[in-house]
C-alpha cells in the first residue's frame, strides 16, 4: 500500500527531458502482447493498494500496481465480480496491466468489455502531469471520455496511476451445456440465441463441440437449460473449461506447434466460417475466432478484412512488424496526433501499438 | 497567428471568427449544395436559433441541409478552407445548448439523413443514418423481437446522431448501458473532409478506442454520417414495484440495499414529495401523496426470472422500512406507475412558468446530503426545486422552478443550478450525467477539471480538428473563461474550493 505518484512524476519528467524511452510494466504477464517492448523498465508494482471499494456503489478504485488477483478476491468477498473476466496470463498480473492491455475474457460478448467498465482513471501523461478523467459514477459526460481511451492503449498515452472500475454482482446460478455440432451450425445457433432473451454468459466452439455457459437468476438458468437441451457439464469440469479458455491454458493453446502464430480474429458475430488453414477456437458468440495457423499474415489479414473484421497476431509472431491490423490513413493520422497530444517526447512504451505510437 | 500549429493555444481564449464573410461563404456553399439545401435569410434561420435549452438563443449565419455524405464532405471542405465554424445538429432536443448556433458559423443539419440503411436481425445490428429517431430504430427492430436499449426521455423525437454526440442514457441504462455501450461503429467526416470509420461490426477495433472519444464529444471531433447500433433481445416481461417511504434518507438507503443484495434492476427511479405532488395532479398515477419519497423499481426478463427478482426486491424494501409496496399487476398498471415519473418535466412546466433541469451525478450514498443541501439552497436563492432521480446510477434531475418574467429569477435559477453542480463535484460526482456540457455547464467544467486536464481536452480536440472549427466555444471552457468565472480546480487531491459547504 503505497502512493508513488510524486516519485513517478519526477521520473517521467526526467525521462521526457532526456528523451529516455520507458517500458511501463506491471507483472510482465502480458509482455508477449503488442509490438516489441523497448526502453528502461518502469515497474509499476510499487504503487499498489485499494483506494476505495464501495460494494453498494458498484465501484472499486485501485492503484495500478495492485495485483489483479487481489482485486478479484476483494470483490468476490462481497459477492461481486469484474464482469469482463480479464485474463491474467500468469501469476502477478496487475490491474494497471489489465487495463492497459484492455483484454476481456469469456463473458465479454454479453457483459461488455473492460473498457465498458472503466469509470475513471488518474494518469501521468508523457509530460509528467497528473491528470484525472471520468470518475467513480456510472454516468458522466463531462469532457471527452479519455478514461476509455486509456483502456487498451498499451501504456502509450500515459502511466496509469489509479483506475475506477465498475463491478457487478456475481450471478446466483450458472451451468454449462455441450452440443456436438460443426463450425457453421455453431455460428448460426450462437447468433440465433443472441437474439433471444437467454442468459448466455459465454460460448466456445472447438473441435466439433460447442460449450455454452448460462448465468443469472436460478429460474432463468433452469428455464434456458430446459429450452436449449444439450449435455450438462459437471460444475468442476465447467469451471476448469472456462478458466482454461480465459487464461489460454486449454488444449487449444497448449498444443500450438512451433512456427504457428496464434491469431485473434475479431469479426461480426455472424460472419461466415473464415476458411483459413489452421485450428480454431470460436468465442464471444462468434465475434472472436482464435486461429492457430502458419499461413502468411497477409492472407489472414486480407480474409478477415473481407469479412468486416481485423486480425491481431496475438502470440508467436515477429513483433518488429505490425501486430495489429494496419489502419486507413486518416484514422492512423488521428491516432498519431493523439499519441503526440499525450506523449510529445514519445517516451511511453514507444512503438508498442504501431510503429511510432 | 497560426492556431493550427498548437491546439493548446486554442484553449487559452475563445477564437475570433468575426472576419468570416457571409456572402463569400454562401457563394461557396451554393456551389456544392442543391437548391433548397442552403438557408441564409433570417426567417428561414429562426427555427435553428436554439435547441432544447431555449434560454440560450443565437441566430446562425447559414444553415446547410445536405442529403448525401458527399455534400457533407463538400460543406466541411468549404468551411475548413475558409475558417468557418460548423455546428452539427440533429433534432435539436438537447438540453445543454450543444447545438446552439455560432454567430459566424454554419449549422449543419443532419435532419435529412433519416433512413435506416440496413437491419440485420441475425447479427443484431442496424446501420442507420444520424437523423433517424431513437425510437424509430426500436420500432423497426420490434418485429424481430429486438430493440435499441438506450431510451432517453425524448426518444420519440431525438436522433441517434444526437445520442452519439451526447452519449445519451435513459431510465434503463443501469442494466443496459449508455450510448457508448450500444454503438459498434460510426462513420463520419472530419473537418478536413476526410471520411473516417471508427469501430466496426465486430466487438472491438485496432488502435486507440476512438469510438469512446467520439461518443459524447458534442459534435467537437467529427460529423457523423452513419451509425451502427447493437440491438438487444426484448425482455419477455417487465414488472414494476412502487415503494413509498416516510423519509428520503431511508429511500436512498433502500436503493443502496437493493444493489447490495446483488440486484441490478432494469430501472430504479426516485421522486421526492414535491415532485410526486406535482405529477399526481397532472397524470393521476395514484401515487401516495403523504410519502416523503417514492421509489420505482423495474424488473425485466423471463416470467420466472422477474417473479424471483420481484420477491427479492420486495423483501429488501420491506427491510428498508417502506411504508407501502405495490407491484404492478399488469402492463396497464406498470405504465401507470411510470406515467408519473415520465411526466415530471411537463408537470414542472405546469406548476411553474419556467423550470431549469440539472443533471449532476453523485455517488448514491451522498444522496441524502445532496437533498438536504438542495433544501437549504431553496432558501438561499428563494426558489423552489422538485427532485427526480435516476437513483440506481446516482443521476439527479433537480428541477428548479422559476419565472423568467420576474426580474432576476433566471439569474437566481442559474446560480442555484451552479451551486447544485458544484456540490455534485465536491461530493465526488460530476456536473453532467447524460445531458452534456454544451454551453450551459461550460463554466462548471472549470470546477471539475484542472488547467492541465482542460489543456489535454483541447489537445484531444486538436488531434481531430486542429483548427478548432467544429462547435467552437462548447463543452470545454477556455482557460480565459475559467479565469473570468473565477473558479479553477487547483490540483487533484486538494479541496477544490473551500467556499463550498461540506457536511
Q: What tags apply to this protein structure?
A:
heterodimer; A: 357 residues; alpha+beta; Uridine Diphospho-n-acetylenolpyruvylglucosamine Reductase, domain 3; Alpha-Beta Plaits; 3 domains; five-stranded antiparallel beta sheet; 30% helix; 26% strand; B: 503 residues; 19 helices; 18 strands; 18% strand; disordered C terminus
Summarize the structure.
The complex is a heterodimer of chains A (357) and B (503). By secondary structure, chain A is an alpha+beta fold.
The helix/strand series of chain A, from N terminus to C terminus, equals HEEEEHEHHHEEHEEEHEEHEHHEEEHEH
Tell me the CATH topology of the largest domain in chain B: Uridine Diphospho-n-acetylenolpyruvylglucosamine Reductase, domain 3
Radius of gyration of chain B: 23 Å
Percent strand of chain A equals 25-35%
Structural class of chain B: alpha+beta
Number of DSSP strand runs of chain A: 17
**Can you summarize the main beta sheet of chain B?**
7 strands, antiparallel
Structure description:
The complex is a heterodimer of chains A (357) and B (503). Helix content of chain A is 30%, strand content 26%. Chain A is an alpha+beta fold and 357 residues long. In chain A, the strands form 4 sheets. Chain A has an 8-stranded antiparallel beta sheet with strand order 13-10-12-11-15-16-14-17, with helices on both faces. In chain B, a hairpin with a 4-residue loop joins strand 5 and strand 6 (125-128). Chain B folds into 3 domains: 22-234, Uridine Diphospho-n-acetylenolpyruvylglucosamine Reductase, domain 3; 237-346, Alpha-Beta Plaits, CATH 3.30.70; 352-485, Alpha-Beta Plaits (2-Layer Sandwich), CATH 3.30.70.2740. The relative contact order of chain B is 0.12. Chain B has helices spanning 7-10, 22-30, 42-45, 69-82, 134-141, 160-166, 173-176, 179-182, 210-214, 248-260, 273-283, 303-319, 331-342, 344-351, 367-381, 409-426, 445-448, 451-464, 479-485; strands spanning 38-39, 62-64, 86-89, 106-109, 116-120, 125-128, 146-147, 183-189, 195-199, 223-230, 232-233, 237-245, 267-272, 293-301, 324-327, 354-357, 384-390, 395-402. Chain B has a 7-stranded antiparallel beta sheet with strand order 15-12-14-13-17-18-16, with helices on both faces. Chain B has a 5-stranded antiparallel beta sheet with strand order 5-6-10-8-9. A 4-stranded mixed beta sheet of chain B has the order 1-2-4-3, covered by helices on one side. Chain B is globular, with a radius of gyration of 23 Å. Chain B is α+β, with helices and mostly antiparallel strands and 503 residues long. In chain B, helix 11 (273-283) crosses helix 14 and helix 15 runs antiparallel to helix 16. The chains are: A alpha+beta (357), B alpha+beta (503). The interface between A and B is large, with 88 and 101 residues.
Amino acid at each position: 500500500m503505497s502512493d508513488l505518484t510524486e516519485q513517478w512524476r519526477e521520473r517521467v519528467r526526467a525521462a521526457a527531458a532526456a528523451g529516455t524511452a520507458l517500458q511501463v510494466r506491471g507483472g510482465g504477464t502480458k509482455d508477449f502482447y503488442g509490438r516489441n517492448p523497448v526502453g528502461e523498465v518502469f515497474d509499476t508494482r510499487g504503487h499498489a493498494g485499494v483506494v476505495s471499494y464501495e460494494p453498494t456503489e458498484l465501484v472499486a478504485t485501485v492503484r495500478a500496481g495492485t495485483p489483479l488477483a487481489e482485486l478479484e478476491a476483494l470483490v468476490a468477498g462481497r459477492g461481486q465480480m469484474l464482469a469482463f473476466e480479464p485474463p491474467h496470463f500468469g501469476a502477478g498480473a496487475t490491474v494497471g496491466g489489465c487495463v492497459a492491455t484492455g483484454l476481456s475474457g469469456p463473458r465479454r460478448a454479453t457483459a461488455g468489455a473492460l473498457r465498458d467498465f472503466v469509470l475513471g482513471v488518474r494518469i501521468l501523461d508523457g509530460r509528467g502531469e497528473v491528470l484525472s478523467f471520468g470518475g467513480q459514477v456510472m454516468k458522466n459526460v463531462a469532457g471527452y471520455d479519455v478514461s476509455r481511451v486509456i483502456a487498451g492503449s498499451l501504456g502509450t498515452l500515459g502511466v496509469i496511476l489509479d483506475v475506477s472500475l465498475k463491478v457487478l454482482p456475481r450471478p446466483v446460478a450458472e451451468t454449462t451445456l455441450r452440443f456436438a455440432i460443426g463450425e457453421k451450425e455453431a455460428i448460426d445457433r450462437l447468433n440465433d440465441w443472441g437474439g433471444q432473451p437467454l442468459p448466455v454468459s459465454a460460448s466456445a466452439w472447438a473441435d466439433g463441440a460447442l460449450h455454452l455457459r448460462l448465468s443469472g437468476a436460478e429460474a432463468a438458468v433452469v428455464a434456458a437449460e430446459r429450452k436449449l437441451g444439450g449435455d450438462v457439464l459437471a460444475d468442476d469440469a465447467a469451471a476448469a473449461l472456462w478458466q482454461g479458455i480465459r487464461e489460454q491454458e486449454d488444449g487449444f493453446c497448449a498444443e500450438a506447434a512451433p512456427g504457428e502464430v496464434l491469431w485473434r480474429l475479431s469479426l461480426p458475430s455472424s460472419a461466415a466460417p473464415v476458411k483459413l488453414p489452421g485450428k480454431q477456437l470460436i468465442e464471444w458468440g462468434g465475434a472472436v475466432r482464435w486461429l492457430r495457423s502458419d499461413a502468411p499474415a497477409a492472407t489472414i489479414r486480407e480474409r478477415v478484412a473481407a469479412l468486416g473484421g481485423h486480425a491481431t497476431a496475438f502470440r508467436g509472431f515477429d513483433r518488429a512488424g505490425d501486430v495489429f491490423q494496419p489502419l486507413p490513413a486518416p484514422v492512423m493520422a488521428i491516432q498519431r496526433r493523439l499519441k503526440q497530444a499525450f506523449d510529445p517526447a514519445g517516451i511511453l512504451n514507444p512503438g508498442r501499438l504501431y510503429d511510432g505510437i | 497567428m497560426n492556431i493550427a500549429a498548437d491546439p493548446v493555444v486554442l484553449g487559452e481564449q475563445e477564437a475570433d471568427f468575426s472576419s468570416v464573410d457571409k456572402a463569400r461563404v454562401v457563394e461557396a456553399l451554393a456551389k456544392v449544395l442543391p437548391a433548397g439545401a442552403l438557408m441564409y435569410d433570417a426567417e428561414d434561420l429562426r427555427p435553428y436559433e436554439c435547441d432544447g435549452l431555449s434560454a440560450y438563443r443565437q441566430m446562425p449565419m447559414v444553415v446547410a441541409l445536405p442529403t448525401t455524405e458527399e455534400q457533407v464532405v463538400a460543406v466541411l471542405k468549404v468551411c475548413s478552407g475558409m475558417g468557418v465554424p460548423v455546428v452539427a445538429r440533429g433534432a435539436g432536443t438537447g438540453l445543454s445548448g450543444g447545438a446552439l448556433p455560432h454567430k459566424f458559423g454554419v449549422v449543419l443539419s443532419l435532419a435529412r439523413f433519416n433512413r435506416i440503411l440496413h437491419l440485420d436481425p441475425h447479427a443484431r445490428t442496424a446501420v442507420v443514418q444520424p437523423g433517424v429517431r431513437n425510437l424509430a430504430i426500436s420500432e423497426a427492430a420490434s418485429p424481430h423481437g429486438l430493440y435499441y436499449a438506450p431510451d432517453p426521455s425524448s426518444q420519440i423525437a431525438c436522433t441517434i446522431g444526437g445520442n452519439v454526440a451526447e452519449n445519451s442514457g435513459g431510465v434503463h441504462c443501469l442494466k443496459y448501458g449508455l450510448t457508448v455501450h450500444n454503438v459498434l461503429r460510426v462513420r463520419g467526416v472530419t473537418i478536413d473532409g476526410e471520411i473516417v470509420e471508427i469501430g466496426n461490426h465486430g466487438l472491438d477495433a485496432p488502435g486507440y478506442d476512438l469510438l469512446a472519444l467520439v461518443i459524447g464529444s458534442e459534435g467537437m471531433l467529427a460529423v457523423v454520417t452513419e451509425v451502427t447500433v447493437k440491438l438487444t433481445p426484448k425482455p419477455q416481461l417487465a414488472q414494476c414495484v412502487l415503494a413509498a417511504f416516510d423519509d428520503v434518507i431511508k429511500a436512498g438507503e433502500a436503493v443502496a440495499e437493493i444493489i447490495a443484495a446483488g440486484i441490478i434492476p432494469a430501472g430504479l427511479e426516485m421522486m421526492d414529495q414535491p415532485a410526486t405532488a406535482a405529477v399526481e395532479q397532472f397524470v393521476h398515477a395514484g401515487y401516495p401523496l403523504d410519502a416523503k419519497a417514492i421509489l420505482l423499481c423495474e424488473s425485466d426478463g423471463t416470467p420466472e426470472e422477474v417473479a424471483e427478482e420481484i420477491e427479492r426486491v420486495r423483501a429488501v424494501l420491506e427491510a428498508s422500512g417502506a411504508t407501502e409496496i405495490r407491484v404492478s399487476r399488469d402492463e396497464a398498471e406498470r405504465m401507470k406507475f411510470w406515467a408519473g415519473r415520465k411526466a415530471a418535466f411537463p408537470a414542472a412546466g405546469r406548476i411553474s412558468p419556467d423550470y431549469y433541469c440539472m443533471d449532476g451525478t453523485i455517488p448514491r450514498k451522498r444522496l441524502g446530503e445532496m437533498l438536504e443541501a438542495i433544501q437549504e439552497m431553496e432558501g438561499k436563492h428563494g426558489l423552489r426545486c422538485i427532485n427526480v432521480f435516476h437513483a440506481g446510477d446516482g443521476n439527479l434531475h433537480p428541477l428548479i422552478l422559476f419565472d423568467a418574467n420576474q426580474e432576476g429569477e433566471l439569474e437566481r435559477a442559474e446560480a442555484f443550478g451552479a451551486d447544485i453542480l458544484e456540490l455534485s463535484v465536491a461530493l465526488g460526482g460530476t456536473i453532467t450525467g447524460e445531458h452534456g456540457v454544451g454551453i450551459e455547464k461550460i463554466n462548471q467544467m472549470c470546477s471539475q477539471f484542472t488547467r492541465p486536464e482542460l489543456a489535454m481536452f483541447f489537445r484531444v480536440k486538436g488531434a481531430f480538428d486542429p483548427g478548432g472549427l467544429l462547435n467552437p466555444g462548447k463543452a470545454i471552457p477556455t482557460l480565459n473563461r475559467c479565469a473570468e468565472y473565477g473558479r479553477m480546480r487547483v490540483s487533484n487531491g486538494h479541496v477544490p474550493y473551500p467556499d463550498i459547504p461540506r457536511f
